[in-house]
Amino acid sequence: MTMAFFNRKKPLKILFVATESAPFAKVGGLASVMHSLPNALVRLGHDARVMIPRYLSIDDKPFHLQMDFKGLSVPTGDEEGQDHLVCNVKRYDPVGGGAITYFLENQEYYEQRANVYGYADDPVRWSLLCRGALEYVRMKGDWTPDVIVCSDWQTALIPNLLKTVYAKDSVLSKIASVLSIHNLYFQAMFDHRFVSEMDFDDGHSPVPGLSDPRISKVNWMRRGIMFADVINTVSPTYAREIMTKENGELLDELLRERKSVVSGILNGIDYSIWDPEEDSFVAVKYSQSKIEDRIKNKAVLQERFGLPVREDAFLVVAVGRLAKQKGFDLLAPVLPHLLDELPMQLIVVGEGDSEIMSFFHDLETKYPVQVATHLRHDSVLPHIVFAGADVLIVPSRFEPCGLTPMEAMRMGTIPIVRKTGGLADQVEDYRPGDHTGTGFLFEKFDSTSFMISFIRAFENFRDKEKWRSLQRRAMSKDFSWERSAKKYVDLFIRAIRSKDVL
Predict the structure, then answer these.
(1) Which residue, among 330, 391, 342, has the nearest Cα to 370 in the 3D structure?
(2) Beta 84-92 vs 391-394: how paired, if at all?
(3) What span, in angstroms and rounded, lies between the C-alpha atoms of 405 and 154?
(4) In this predicted model, what pLDDT tens digit does every residue of 378-416 receive, in sequence order?
(5) Strands (DSSP E) along 224-319, which ranges?
(6) What 3 state SS string does 451-472 have?
(7) Count of C-beta atoms within a 10 Å radius of residue 468
(8) Fold assignment, 291-479
(9) Do the two domains 3-53+118-268+482-501 and 291-479 of this chain adopt the same fold?
(10) What class does CATH assign to 3-53+118-268+482-501?
(11) What is the pTM of this model?
């Protein structure tokens, strides 16, 4: 590849390798990204494709999967001449165009497994995915990506393999790699903060074979950071934070060494799904110009959760994973006082840590006319909630990106968030004096700082004209995937340039 490549307006060929992708297999936010980003790149004129395992839950018939490569031989060792596993690759071509999805088939590791995650041999399963994706590209021959994007630790061995096992391969050695870090906290199957000297992985030893017990002691994220041509996180602020001791999860020194290739691009949301004028789950459609119609959805939401229908109630919501990372333990010292003193209502939708779920359940019991909960995952309720709520609270300890504030703002719900990670990049603090801002931020991770922002939001909520102006600004923010996809194109070109120079 020559530098002349960059003087031509040539569409890029990009392969995303991940453990999940909507609508085929969805556990968390990664699945949404693996659906929306590749399709946004396709709409920009690029050839983006995705490869995930074919789990038991993925049925051929609804998606009309077609066999693309039968009998793919995937090496199981760390050297040539080792044993092989036989896999198949099936393909989904979306009707009307879009990103093609490949499915790596293997009876033992994927097709007989009901869940995406949670097995003792997950390192073997993900190692097979890494090797299988590379062998497919190497053997298929009719489509070779310019860039392979690895998503989190589960596919972070790909850059390592490209630079070692396949360094002299005529096809794979020319492909650039991008490591996309969605959450640095997760680096492997073990807790990276408690590793003995005997088990410490410095990243320089050969990648163990699938049957080698050492595969479970490899720090996949460390190796991805070491070998990837370019490293990306899901927000600019998080990219800076992970290079500090406080948020670097013991990899901050390595990340600082590779600072020149580390960047952050804020995730987007799918505007075809989050659109208050078209959303089928929204009872009364509305827009920025008809924001006054939105109040009718507040009554719908209150009725849905059995709360008194009160237009003047300050309707607060918490939506998503109820985990300590999200900072919900900050609420325990202050929420009862706020419920006692303010004309507020609280709706909680989501599941997570039992301690936090119990806290919200107890609040519902103590304040039955003010608090309502739905303590399990639900993909529909957030649309109804964000169409009628006044504010969303996200007091996170740390937050690589965080999609819910973007979804909430798109629907006119104002976020109260801690100024960290992607939250700091999404939300601009409200300044009533100069009519700017889209939400309310606090910096210190403590209950008092949260309460101050909460009271600020409540006081401004009482001025209906200012509040509607704030809602319009929040709704007008551009969090579309097209915006993010254009930045990813620049990132991929940087990766290719880096590969070309090296």
Answers:
(1) 342
(2) unpaired
(3) 27
(4) 889 999 999 999 999 999 999 999 999 999 999 999 999
(5) 230-233, 262-264, 314-319
(6) HHHHHHHHHHHCCHHHHHHHHH
(7) 16
(8) Rossmann fold (3.40.50)
(9) yes
(10) alpha beta
(11) 0.91
Question: pLDDT tens digit string along 290-307?
Answer: 999 999 999 999 999 999
Burial class (CB in 10 A: 0-12, 13-18, 19+), 416: buried
11 cis-preceded (ω within 30 degrees of 0): no
Distance separating the N- and C-terminal Cα atoms of the chain: 11
Tell me the DSSP string of 359-421.
HHHHHHHH-TTTEEEE-S--SSHHHHHHHH-SEEEE--S--S--SHHHHHHHTTPEEEEESSH
CA distance 230 to 162: 13
Count other Cβ atoms within 10 Å, centred on residue 316: 26
Using alpha carbons, select from 369, 394, 486 the residue that is nearest to residue 445: 394
Measured torsion, CA atoms of residues 369, 375, 380, 386, in degrees rounded to the nearest 10: 50
Residue 81: pLDDT over 60: no
Q: What is the CA radius of gyration of the chain?
A: 24
Question: Contact, 264 vs 426, CB < 8 A?
Answer: no
Residue 127 has pLDDT above 50, yes or no: yes
C-alpha count within 13 angstroms, C-beta hemisphere, residue 67: 6
Domain extents in the chain: 3-53+118-268+482-501, 291-479
